[in-house]
Amino acid sequence: MVTTHALVGLLIALPVVFFAPDHAPVALAAGVAGGILPDFDVVATHRKTFHAPVVAAGGAIAALPLALLSPSALTIALAVFLAAAALHCYGDVLSCGLGARPWENPPSDRAVFDHVRGRWVPPRRVIPYDGSPEDLAIAGVLAVPLLFTLEGQWELLVSGLLVVSIGYTVSRKRLEHVACWGVRFLPAGLRRYVPERYLV
User: Fold this and answer.
1) 189 occurs within a structural domain
2) What top-level branch of life does the organism fall under (predicted)?
């Protein structure tokens, strides 16, 4: 779930709350942004256009020493953003891969596209599908240290992400059918931006 990715991004930023509290807001915002940005390619080629596991990981490894040696809002935000984006990609590798209704259809052999090697990385299928009970369990575990540490708007954000995660998990299978039904009523010009999985 994109909410799980956002929670991962917040967790990555958590050390900044303790060791550089002045930069905590920008680090937390960068963690959320890095956690969710890759999924914006859902309107292009999902898990390929904005998913770049090797590039993001390499960037995060390069940015981390810079953030430690010369901490600033920019260097810390860059390191957290790239680390969250990289973990988003590698988290997707743990899933069932691409494809509509994976609980019914044959499993996909495509998890994330590796732009460096020019090939799709196969899924590990630890998480059966996004919004599965396993996915929700991970989101719940991630939320615990965040809820104990963060305050104010950030605590509300974590709580909101958890509520959305629960709602999505409960309605996940129904939502797939609703989306396929609703796409029929979109103007032709907008349908080209709809992922193929809903054009069935």
Assistant:
1) no
2) Archaea
**Residue 167 lies in domain:** 2-172
- The answer to whether residue 115 sits within a structural domain is yes
**Which regions of the chain does DSSP assign to beta strands (E)?**
112-114, 119-121
Helix axes 152-183, 2-19, angle to 10 degrees: 160
Task: Name the nearest CA neighbour of 139 among 169, 165, 160.
Answer: 165
Task: Give the C-alpha distances (Å, rounded to integers) separating 61 from 50, 79, 80, 91.
Answer: 19, 8, 10, 17
Residues 154 and 144: beta-carbon distance below 8 Å: no
Distance CA 22, CA 13 (A): 13
Contacts (Cβ under 8 Å, ≥6 apart) of 119: 113
Looking at the structure of the chain, the number of domains it has is 1
List, for residues 124-161, the tens digit of each pLDDT value: 888 888 889 999 999 999 999 999 999 999 999 999 99
In a domain, 138, yes or no: yes
136, containing H or E segment: helix 133-149
